Structure formats: C-alpha cells, structure tokens
Amino acid sequence: MYLYNSATHKKEEFQTHTPGRVEMYTCGPTVYHYAHIGNLRSYIMEDVLEKFLRYEGYDVNRVMNITDVGHLASDADTGEDKMLKGAKRENKSVMDIAKFYTDAFFDDCAKLNIKTPEVVQPATGLIDEFIRVVSGLIDKGYAYVAGGNVYFDTSRLDHYYVFNDHDEEDLAVGVREGVEEDQNKRNKNDFVLWFTKSKFEDQALKWDSPWGVGYPGWHIECSCISMKFNGEYLDLHCGGVDNAFPHHTNEIAQSEAYLGHPWCAQWFHVHHLNTNSGKMSKSKGEFLTVSLLEEKGYDPLAYRFFCLQSHYRKGLVFSWENLDNAAGAYNKLVKRIAALKGGDGEIDREAAARFKEKFLTQVGNDLNTSMGITCLYDVLKAPVNDVTKRAVLADFDQVLSLSLLEKAAQLREKEAAQAKTSGADGFTIQGEGDPAIDALVLQRAQAKKAKNFAEADRIRDELKAQGIEVTDVPGGAVWKRI
Ligand code: AMP
Ligand code: ZN
Predict the structure, then answer these.
(1) Which of 30, 39, 85 to probe ligand 1 with, by most ligand atoms within 8 A of CB?
(2) What tens digit of pLDDT does each residue of 63-91 get?
(3) Which structural domain range is residue 45 located in?
(4) Are residues 8 and 152 in the same domain?
(5) Can you name the residues that pair with 18 across neighbouring β-strands?
(6) Within a 10 A sphere around the Cβ of 186, how many other Cβ atoms?
(7) If I label 125, which of 143, 339, 396, 464 is the partner at 20 to 30 A Cα–Cα?
(8) Residues 364 and 448 in one domain
(9) Are residues 442 and 391 in the same domain?
C-alpha cells in the first residue's frame, strides 16, 4: 500500500523491516476519563489500517500502552499528573480510576468493532524496564540528573524537530504553555525521563529508582513498551496528530539514542475530530462519548461509518446533522444488503477478483476509506448475482468492520418477526408485532370474509383512532403507524 509518512512528509510505498511482518505501535489512552469520540476517531482509523495490512497478507504484531502514570496536564513536563487529577475528581485511588477507564475504553472499542491489539501494556506494569532504559541513556551520555530528576539531553542530537520544520520558538515547551520553564533543564526542549521533584510530592504512585523515589515521564513509556514487544525495529507508529510534538518527537530521540540506530520507519498521524469550538479534548471537560451516542439512539457503527467517510489526514467536523446523515446512509446501505437474495447461484470468482483488486488499489492509496465505501456501492450496483455481491461485501468488511452482513441479517430477522401468520387459512399480518393490533386486523379480515362490511369498517375506524392504518395485500394485511 501507499501511505503518507509524517516523518518524510511524503506518500511512500509501505515497507517492513522483516518481509511479511508488521511491527505496529499505537499510543494508547490516558485512562483518567472516558475516551471521547475524537480519541476514538484515531483508534478507528488505526484499526482499519491494521486490518487493511492483514487483508494484504501481512502478519501484524500490534502493541498498545495504557497510560496510567506520568502524563502531565501540559503534554510536556508541567502541570498536574492527569491520573491524579482523575482520582481527585472522583475521590478514588489512581489504580481504581485506571482500571475503570481502561475497561470502559475497551467496551467502547468493542462497540465500534475496534480490535484489541496483540499486546496491551499498562505503564505501571513495566517500571523496571523504564529504569533500565533510563540508566542506559545516562550511561551513553544522553541523559543527566538535575534537581533530582533525570532529563534527556536534546543538545546531543543532530536533528530534533523530526516532524516539521517549524520555527523552534513556536514549539518551545513551557513558553507555549504559558508556564514557568524548568530551571533544571540544560536546553529548553530537554524532557524528563524520571521525576523525583518535590513539586510532585502528592503523586499517588511512586517507585524506588537509582535517582530516588519517583515515577517515569510519559514519553519513555512508549519507547520502552515498543522496544520490548515490537523489537528494535518498528515499522509503523500511530497516534493522533497532537502527539507528534512533543510526545513522538521525544520517543524518537530516546529510542534512537538508546538503540544507536534508526528506530521507526513510518509514522501515521490521524487528524482531529473537531467541534465548532475546536478540537474535542478531555481536558476541556465537554466531550461526547460512545455511551452518549447510544443514549441518543445512534448505533456506534454509524459513528464508525461517519469516520470512514472522510480521510484520516483531514480534520473532521462533528455535528449532529453530519452524524444523522451518516447514520441514514449506513441504514440504507444495510437495507440494500438485506434485500439481496441468498441462494441465486454460484459466486462469480472472476468478478469477485476484479472487485477485490479495485478495493486494494483504492483503499491502498493512503488508506482512502471513503473510496472503500464507494467500492461497496459499486458492488451493489454491479450486474452480478446476489451471492457474489454478498461474498464480496463480506470480504471488504474484514477491513471496514461495519458488520454489514450481520446487521442485514438482523434487519431481515426483525422484519420476519414482524410478519406473522394468524388464522387457519394462512392470513399474514405485517406490522410491528403488537398482538392487540394484530387481533383487530384479523377480526376485520374475518368480518370482511363473512361480508359483514359494517363491522369491518367499524374495526378500521377503531384502528384509525389508535393511529393505525391498514392496507390489504394478497393473502393478508399490512399495518403501520401514521
Ligand atoms: P489520550 O487519551 O489523551 O492520551 O489520547 C488518546 C489518543 O487520541 C491519542 O492518539 C491522541 O492523539 C488522540 N486524540 C486526542 N484528541 C483527539 C481528537 N479530537 N481527534 C482525534 N484524535 C484525538
Ligand atoms: Zn505514546
């Protein structure tokens, strides 16, 4: 496939260090609150990417961290620890908060058909490893101890701003955040690998280390977790675009300094879900969750469909109207699939191969998921039998994960349950499966059969008074609410 690589600023042919095998890493959630649907946009697009690579035949090893310590409010080295903030908000322990929101995250992922990665590693479970790598960085001369903390020395690098050519001033941490700069830092972009500073005395979780009791910085966790479970060469690193700086920039600095060779070849950044007041974010407090969408009657997969309709490298504007449009299109698509017949012959293998080739080219062009959806409509319109259509749609859905055939089967079952047969003569009533209404409709039919038209009309009026309209069809009647 061809994928835009934010490290080279180019669309490139996807390559792996070991042929046929993808080592893939995803920055996981900071579990101090529910994931919002913006975070989940990133995870949906990363999920499609993983599934597309598998569809192409790669064996994918996907690793994700769970940030349950060390992520400070500013994304850099200032502000309160987000986990502690969550624990205080809910008057619970940090570990309780972490467990609750980790479970909630994976529940949301399941509803959105996001596959769980092969490895999921909470940061607090790998502290010894972080200490080992930080010690290694000090030994190699890339890190120093100042004021009790351990810092990475960015002046040792030839190239620090790997993702952009911005003016350094624009990106200066601390200055940008409007907070005091840390006087212990030798260079303004140096960042903390291990904290012991008294400023964070109320930190809930602390571990012993060669530099004193403290806790790891946020960035080191991703480098260490990836190096442990993906090995020394990472093929693909994913995350939301807000993580490119400073988080991913610092990950590269640490990993390459530690390993002594280039680390990750391809960087995949998903752009933001925005509302009309800007980026959706947890820290702003006002954000939408999957549960809220469900409460409002939306199928979570309609949100997945909404995300797939647009390209991951463009900001996506959320509005209820936009979501309604996507939900309407998704339901219509399912309806069309439900109308396909079951056993109308053999699968046309040649046609199926042609469809597949087109899908691979289209989606393989920088993960163009909206073209992937167009491929679904192309199949539905094509002059091939329904068996072929169903097989091809099921095949594409291994990547898109919209549960298309399952939803279509559910719809057919619902419709079948609504169509019920009553009476010895096989009179069929189609409606919403309401026994009281069905009984009246049947009584009316029996009255008509007995030529008691006055009674039949009376029942019709009675139904009408209840907001029900009855239409006679061959062999039965259909009723609906008006
Ligand atoms: P966090 O839980 O804050 O560590 O973020 C989890 C993931 O969601 C990271 O990859 C972020 O870059 C990403 N993210 C945060 N906000 C948004 C947003 N509004 N739209 C898309 N992705 C986001
Ligand atoms: Zn990360």
Answers:
(1) 39
(2) 999 998 867 766 666 667 788 888 888 88
(3) 2-270
(4) yes
(5) 21
(6) 11
(7) 143
(8) no
(9) no
pLDDT of 166 above 60: no
**Residue 288 placed within a domain:** no
pLDDT at 394 over 50: yes
Q: Which of 32, 37, 41, 42 for mutating ligand 1's site (highest number of atoms within 8 Å of CB)?
A: 42
User: Can you give the pTM of this predicted structure?
Assistant: 0.86
CA angle 73, 280, 120 (to 5 degrees): 65
Q: Is residue 210 reached through a cis peptide bond, with omega within 30 degrees of 0 on the bond before it?
A: no
243 Cα nearest atom in ligand 1:
12
Q: How many percent of the chain have pLDDT more than 90?
A: 69
> Quick one: 389 and 457 in the same domain?
no
Mean of pLDDT values over 162-178? 51
Instruction: Assign residue 384 the CATH number of its domain.
Output: 1.20.120.1910
Check pLDDT > 50 for residue 363.
Answer: yes
Same domain, 251 and 398: no
How many CB atoms are located within 10 Å of the residue 27 CB?
Answer: 23
Looking at the structure, do residues 398 and 434 belong to the same domain, yes or no? Answer: no
